[in-house]
Design a protein that fits this description.
18% of the residues lie in helices and 37% in strands. The protein is of the alpha+beta class and 209 residues long. It folds into two domains: 39 residues; 151 residues, Distorted Sandwich (Glucose Permease (Domain IIA)). A hairpin with a 2-residue loop joins strand 6 and strand 7.
């Protein structure tokens, strides 16, 4: 199983402690730290994804459950009407974020903030977040990564001016998070509330012809 490189700083300390405690026979402590290392390895897993190749599809930006699908009358970044799709990532989900479409990164903005539970509405406005404005075949889309109660860090892999492919990894959020995706009117939504989605795999929308 491939592990995200950012995860090793969490995995190695309990792994080493578990091994050191195993040598003198301190089984309880050894098992505890080895299980903790395994839990971190599971969280930071990086499974291989084969991105759908059909043209005009919009892919899920993250693994998780769809919490919200609602119309937006005038989003300041994408201009005009569109749709907000919110995906909640539990501690059991893969925490990479991926580009929904091939795109040019127009802007990346990091905002420090609070740590409300990621599923609450307050999280969208007040929590620590990282936002990306992307230029795509569907028009401009706006993707916002947010951390929650347990999470304390967002890693972004791209910068303004980068050209990225559909399904490409663009970031990593640590320990329970949320993604808000604002799509323009040109995209027809193909998912439903409470649906489980996979980043870079699940088709969440199609560009209208």
């Amino acid at each position: 199983m491939k592990i995200a490189r950012e995860g090793w700083i969490f995995i190695l300390p309990p792994l080493i402690l578990g091994i050191l405690l195993f040598v003198p026979g301190w089984w309880v402590g050894s098992i505890f730290f080895l299980l903790l290392a395994a839990a971190f390895a599971f969280f930071f897993r990086d499974p291989k994804r084969v991105v759908p190749s059909q043209p005009g599809v919009v892919l899920s930006p993250a693994d998780g459950q769809v919490l919200k699908i609602e119309e937006v009358q005038d989003h300041p970044e994408i201009g005009g009407k569109g749709t907000l799709v919110t995906i909640f990532l539990s501690l059991l989900d893969v925490h990479f974020t991926r580009s929904p479409l091939a795109a040019e990164v127009l802007k990346v903005d990091y905002h420090p903030g609070k740590f409300f539970p990621a599923y609450k509405d307050e999280a969208s406005q007040l929590n620590e977040s990282n936002s990306l404005l992307l230029s795509t075949a569907a028009g401009k889309i706006f993707l916002k990564q947010m951390v929650g109660v347990a999470a304390r860090r967002i890693k972004c892999y791209v910068k303004a001016g980068d050209l990225i492919t559909a399904g490409q990894k663009i970031g990593l959020m640590y320990f329970g998070s949320r993604v808000d995706l604002f799509l323009p009117e040109s995209v027809e939504i193909k998912i439903s509330l409470r649906q489980k989605v996979k980043g870079g795999l699940t088709v969440i929308g199609e560009i209208k012809k």
